[in-house]
Design a protein that fits this description.
8-stranded parallel beta barrel, TIM Barrel, globular, about 250 residues, 12 strands, alpha/beta
Length: about 250
Amino acid sequence: MLNVRVIPCLDVRDGRVVKGVRFRDLEDQGDPVALATRYEREGADEIVILDVTATADGRLARRRTVSAVRRALAIPLTVGGGVRELADAAELLDAGADRVSVNTAAVERPELLTEIADSLGAQCAVIAIDAAGDANRPSGYEVRTHSGTRSVGLDAAAWASEAVDRGAGEILLTSFDRDGTRAGYDLDLLRAVRDAVPVPIIVSGGASSPGHMAAAISEGADAVLAASIFHQEEWSVGRLKDRLSRLGAPVRR
């Protein structure tokens, strides 16, 4: 088994890191450059920046924030928020992103994933899937867009498979139901998508302990993403990796 990545996530609004529950009631957590720098120093394998209001505002993730974080980092940086066409993805890469995460626009026009993969490489094309429980879907989960506010009639596992077929090289899988709840990742959701796709999966939404992360790794997660436990200094990345290693998870050192 390949070593698993530990990824702090910076949800950004108006140039500040925020965090809420199920994408709402966002509270300020600090400066993105300062937090990203701290996490790299502690041993983070990657940083994810998600501009949480970009799609609603009809704009791209703020280039100034991306560039500032990139200047401070040596580790990989994935950025999402407001990407609607190939030129948007290229602009974020030019600003310093290594990979681009696409969610709503890919659901509305799946060809976008192919355009990004063909032009920039599949390794740059990350499909972000926000999913909520729905007993009427074959996998038991439906896709949500627009920061979880819209149901779009797609089965989460089926959409993951289609996204990969269209060129996505990685999946950022977030449980809308678990986001910010500290109840642990939705392992049923992870299993459903893991069974559907061969590409790496970053699991997100609900982690508050190394045990939650170890459980996801045992179910096939290639990377574990968290926010609050790092922002609020409950765990440093290094201490968390130490605990994961003792739990038998093959983390990067």
